[in-house]
Structures are given as structure tokens and as C-alpha cells.
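Please describe our next protein:
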Amino acid sequence: MYKLITILFFLLGYFNLKTYSQSETYEKLWSDPEIQQRINSGIETNRKGWFTLNIVDQDNQPISDASINLELTNHEFLFGSNIFMYQGFPDQKQNQRYEDVFKQIFNFASLPFYWKALEPEPGVLRYEANSEKIYRRPPPDPILAYCKENNITPKGHTLVWDNPTWSIPEWLPENAEKREELINKRISQLGERYGESIKYWDVVNELDQRAGHMEVVMPKDFALKAFKQAEAVYPRENTLILNEVTNVWYKNAGEYSNFYTIIDNLLMKGAKIDAIGFQCHFFGGERDIKAMMDGKLMQPKQILDILDTYGEFQLPIHVTEITVPTIPNNAEGEKIQALITENLYKIWFSHKNVEAITWWNVADGTATKNEDKFLGGVLRGDLSAKPSFDVLNRLINEDWHTKIVNQNLVDSQLKFNGFFGEYTVKIQYKGKTIEKKINLTKNGLDKITIKI
């Protein structure tokens, strides 16, 4: 009898899993011709452009007898992850694997600037490589060197967050005025040291969760004051971000949504918000996966409606933290994770207001205990690639990639349609190969002259 019950439970689980992985509802929603048309046309319109390269000699005379090899080497769009495990593994081979994977698919890195770990004692600032080791909180300086070497854009996460577990140092005085002074000092210190090298900052994190931390003493209007202080001390070209939790995707009340009204309020008060950040952690686990497969959560039309609504602010949108669980923890669960990942990245990448997408934990088992149970990495615990990694690698490095090989010039020109970003151009002329780097951007020139 016991064996029979066990078999029945196994079969029920199996058929429930098959429902997840082969959900007709989910497939129908995402294969809808109208949705696919908007995604495909959005990628073509918002992520690509037509460019003309004019090739001339040193006397500015057109050259016609040359051929060109051209390849995208770095997207203008920001594909990122947190980099909290930089040099954080016990084995150097693991650290090397982590770094190799990171630079293979990501050009954007969220660095940990959590106050509690960055300044564990008053005045003890963990900036440099020889700083005290803290799990998932590597110091910024060596990460910045890695980012610079590998053409990865860094982001600071986060300047102000009222969370007592992860952010607020225990040594802070229980006085709002003194805390305000120390918050301003922290923002200024980081701006002076990193304002030139880090152009993106999550200035304030998770305001919609303030009700859960009301016991934490914070200055009145601390979010506005944080943006004002950051505006005063950081370079004008820096992007100051307001980052919010996943509730944005769960409940959409248009302009009366909580986060919408928070943004509206801060902007009217004069906050320099340069970008809007949405987290996307499916910490409901199996409940969230089932809701997606049943078409009750993250419907493509719902996602587009939310992006359109927040697009009314005319500000870039960053999807800042993503956890797609692997449920169940087997091959089928990994396929489900990969399927959801591919659909979400395509729809986000297609929207005109989105300029960055950031996965959260690269590998399973490298987060907090509460997050680890969701197995939300693109790598397994042994750092082998999951199907979700293969999806991101294919999308970023193959599907959304531009490469032209041995193209002859026509009237000294090369015209092509390519993704926005940095390119390496190799021109073969009179037995020589001349290599140039060019930037082809959404708001830049569409006609470039290269002199050889």
C-alpha cells in the first residue's frame, strides 16, 4: 500500500510538472501573433538602426577597392547581474569560472554598496582589495578593475535603504537628525571616490516596503533628500535610479499604483530621478510558477501595459533584480526557468523605455538562505550552465548580434542594419588590415566616416 501511494504521488507530481512545462495557456499567451509582432517590431525599431560607413583615405578621397569585416563587441543595451560573488569562492578555479561566465554574457554589474557591510564600524570603509572579507560583499575597488578590464559598466547598489537586516549599520545613532548627517556624509564620500568611475546608482531602494520597517528611524522625506544630496555631489551625467520591489508586476492600478504615485510625488518635489528600477523576484516559488503557467501572472499584455504606463514619465526603465526559480529542481524545472527567462528578456528588450535588464544571482547556492531555496541562478551550484544560461548566451551573443564578413564596398560605402553598441571594424586594403573601433548608438550619428 505504501509503495502504491508513493507511486501515485510521483505520478501526480509528474503530470503536474507536465502541465507546467507544456501549458497550453502559457504557450497561447506568448505565441499570440499580435504579441509576437509587437516584440519583434519593438526589437527591430528600438534596438537596431541603419548605418552608413564611408571609407576614405588620408586625403579624404573615397576608397572603393576594400573589404570590411565588422562585428558588434558590446551592446549599448545593458545586460547585467549582481557581481556579489567576485573572488568569493573558496577555490580559484571557481572564481575564474565565475569571472569568465560573467563577462561572456553580461556587460553591466551591480556592485554591493550596502552600508552595513561597507562601513561595519564608524569610519572603517571597506573599499580596497585587502579589506576584511564578508560573504557576498566584496570591496568595490578590485571589482571596478575587473569591470574596466572587461568593458563592463558598473552600478552602485544601493546608497539609501531603510532595511535593518541588510543595510542599516547597527552603530548608527537612534536619532533622525544625526542619521541625516551621516547619510549625507556617506553619499558624499561615495560620490567623491566613485562618482567618476560609476555612472549608475540605485540611490533609494524599496520605498514601497517602508511600512515594514517603520521601527527604523529615518529622516523625514529621506528619499527626496537622498536624491538632492546625490544630485549635488555626483557628476551630472550620472544616472540616479529609484529602485522598487516586485509588486510592480503583481498589481497594476495604472497611475494610482503605489510606485507610480511615489515617483510622481518625488518628481514634483524636485528629485533628480534619471531612471526607474523594477525588481522581478518570483519569491512565491511554486505558486508564482504555477500562476505564470496558468496565465494569471506576468501575462505579456500585462507586462507591456505596465511598461507603457511607467513609460509616461519619459524615463529609462531598468529591470534591476531578477530571480526566476528552478521548480522543480530537475531537468524539467530548468527547462521551465529557461522558457520564462527567454520570454521575459524578449519582451523587456523590445520595449522602447527599457535600457537595462539585471539578473540577480549568477549561480545557485550563492545567495542568502531564503533566496537559495529558489535556485534562481543561470548556473548550478557546481557552476555548470543551466538552460537559462544557454538562452541568455544565445539571445545576447547570437540572436541579438551583428556580424558582417568580407563585405565589399559599394561606392566607398557600407550600409547595414545593426544592433546599437560598440563595433570592431577591420578594413582590408592594399594587403593591409586596418582595425578601428566605432560606437553606433540610438541617439548618435547614423553616418560615420572612417579614414584609413
Notes: The chain has 15 helices and 15 strands. Residues 2-21 form the longest helix (20 residues). The longest strand covers residues 48-56.
